[in-house]
Structure formats: structure tokens, C-alpha cells
Write a structure and sequence with these properties.
210 residues, alpha/beta, five-stranded antiparallel sheet, five-stranded parallel sheet, 10 strands, globular, binds adenosine-5'-triphosphate, AAA+_ATPase, ATP-binding, ATP binding, ABC_transporter-like_ATP-bd, ABC transporter ATP-binding protein
Length: 210
Amino acid sequence: MLEIKGVKFQYDKGKPFDIPDFQLNAGDQLLILGKSGSGKTTILNILGGLLKPLAGEVRLGDTLINQLSGAKLDKFRGKHIGIVFQKPHILSPLTVEENLKLANFFSGINGDRNLELLQELGIADKRKAKVNTLSEGEAQRVSIARALANKPDLILADEPTASLDDQNAEIVVKLLQEQARKHHAALIIVTHDQRVKDHVVNQITIGGLS
Ligand SMILES: Nc1ncnc2c1ncn2[C@@H]1O[C@H](COP(=O)(O)OP(=O)(O)OP(=O)(O)O)[C@@H](O)[C@H]1O
């Protein structure tokens, strides 16, 4: 379902990155570990089509993501890929509900799943609250809900536990896993957080040991 082959990347004047080849099926989970600066966010952005590799293939289903661009890429991403960013990309003056509706709007998918999702993530009672009134953990859940609102085939999470205490870190990882399992999505978590290591069996480490 997701296949990465021969992917190479380099920022202007930066050192080149070789991304290891791997394949994931629907429902599979992968942890990409690496210390700070090893290229975890870079990989995630390549997988999500936010950065174009210099060479190689990023295939999701029958689509070569690295060959899409512009509106086609945006539409494909909106429909098939949910990204939980390191810093929540949610609009804080809007309510929780409005943030989800915005995600629905941009990908042209109706919001029939929004309430259920908020209930599953334990923040349904906050749906009318403005995001800037939420705690960090709650805001993180909104950003997970937003990433999942469009029933993605692939969920990408960048350091989803970085700012959370042990208890909430475990809750967030389990929520991501539960959601991925329930909706047969592939899940990739990139992190340097050693606490996540015990939760995902399938792991690769980039840039040497973390
Ligand atoms: N836009 C950019 N232009 C040039 N170099 C960049 C850019 N973004 C990242 N880099 C460099 O690429 C390398 C990898 O960065 P990246 O953010 O992917 O690492 P990371 O493993 O996610 O780090 P962290 O765990 O600290 O978030 C770093 O050396 C970084 O300085």
C-alpha cells in the first residue's frame, strides 16, 4: 500500500539524505527513530508530499506521490494522508468543530465522522471551545482529530508526544494506534522519544542510533 524506493533528498547546501526503502500494508505501523537533526521531519514531509525527493519513488496505492504537484497533490493529500504535525497546525481563534470542518472543506469530504472522532478522542465536550482555550494535551488531540477527519489511508505523526508527560504520551500513542487499526490506515510515527519505542514493534532508526 505504501512503498518507498530509492528516495534521496538534499536541502540547498545541506548534506544528502538517503531514506531507507520500506513497505507498509493497510493497518501496519512503523516507528522511525532518530536523534534531533537526523532528518525525521524531512522524511515525514517527503512521505506526505510536502517535500519532493530528488530521486526515488513514494507510492501510496496506485499513486506516485512524488510525481504529483499543485492542486492534484493537495487534493490527493487531503483525501488520503492525515498529518499530525510537531507543532499543532490548528487555527487557535477557531473552535474545535470549525477546525475539523475546515479540514473537511479543503479535502471535499463531508464531516459525518467529526463528532464520533471527537468522542473517541475524549474531547467532544470541547467541540464548541476555541482552540486557544485548550490545554496542550487537548490541542494535540484536536490536531489528531483533524488529521483523521478525512479517513486517511496513511497517518503520519511527527513527534506527537514531544510536549506530553508520560501518561499523556502513552494515551496519545495508543489513540493513534487505535484509530489506525479501526480505520485500516497505515501509521508512521517519527520521534526521538524513547518512551514510544516499547509501543511499536516495527522500527527503523535513521542517522545512527538515537
Ligand atoms: N528548510 C531547510 N533548509 C535547509 N536545511 C534544513 C531545512 N529543514 C531542515 N534542515 C536541516 O536538515 C537536517 C534534518 O532536519 P529535520 O528537521 O528533518 O530533523 P529532525 O530529525 O526532524 O530533527 P528534530 O528531532 O530536532 O525535529 C537538519 O540538519 C536541519 O538543520
